[in-house]
Write a structure and sequence with these properties.
Blueprint: H1 2-15, H2 17-22, H3 30-51, H4 57-61, H5 63-91, H6 98-107, H7 111-117, H8 121-142, H9 147-168
Helix pairs in contact: 3-5, 3-6, 3-7, 5-6, 6-8, 8-9
């Protein structure tokens, strides 16, 4: 049942973020969101091991410790990203709650395994662009930020993240 729910949630986030973020049936609170983020991190670490993407954490520790540490790091990163989303949304006039920002951040964790599959630099642009689209939809529908403002603010954020990723690639 958990696998089916995770697949349904992931497909909804990836393919219909508008409907996903406007439906209250699958809102991820801190517990559900943390579990989802951890699952996506484990899947990403497994894909990295299978595909031989052994840079970073898995190269220095090995696959088994990476499978233990990467979910913890991913959950912490999701809370940090939620804080960034919250600050940006507040600066854009939102009165949304941190829980909304965490839901958006946890939903974006679906891109952890996808980024392993699309790890080549040109495909990284596709992955980050898709992530930007999903996150900006979440900000628009959960924080009620004007669409153009949300798209521009988060495009700038993801452009900066892409520059950092390209510099480390």
């Amino acid at each position: 049942m958990i696998a089916r729910t995770t697949l349904d949630r992931s497909a909804a986030i990836l393919l219909q973020p508008h409907f996903y973020f406007t439906c209250d049936d699958d809102f991820m609170d801190f517990g559900d969101g943390s579990i989802y983020v951890a699952m996506m991190a484990v899947l990403g670490a497994l894909l990295a091991g299978i595909m031989g993407n052994t840079s970073g954490l898995s190269a220095s520790l090995g696959l088994v410790p990476t499978l233990i540490i990467s979910p913890v790091i991913a959950v912490v990163a999701a809370f940090i990203m939620a804080g960034i989303i919250q600050v940006l949304c507040r600066s854009l006039g939102s009165t949304g709650h941190f829980g909304d920002s965490f839901h958006i951040s946890a939903s974006a964790a679906v891109f952890i395994p996808i980024s392993q599959l699309l790890s080549a630099l040109p495909l990284l642009i596709l992955s980050m662009g898709w992530t930007w689209w999903v996150v900006s939809r979440g900000v628009i529908y959960l924080h009620h930020v004007e669409p153009r403002k949300a798209e521009i603010a988060f495009a700038l954020l993801y452009a900066g993240l892409f520059i950092l990723a390209a510099a480390n690639h």
